[in-house]
Amino acid sequence: LGISSGTFYNWRSKYAGLEVNEAKRLRELEQENNKLKRLLAEKLLEVDAMKDVLSKKW
Predict the structure, then answer these.
(1) Which domain holds residue 48?
(2) Inside any domain, residue 50
(3) Is residue 2 part of a domain?
(4) Digit-coded pLDDT (tens) for 5-56
């Protein structure tokens, strides 16, 4: 297959018993989840920066 046996067994354990459309949906949801995690991290950094600016005495 051109992949390591470890990768194959990881895929097999992750997708075993899923229909093709279910596996596709799982992948889509995982991608969306990763995108949302990145957005949350960005917003948390923005909030921290704003708190830092607001906490300074002028």
Answers:
(1) 19-58
(2) yes
(3) no
(4) 999 999 899 888 999 999 999 999 999 999 999 999 999 999 999 999 999 9
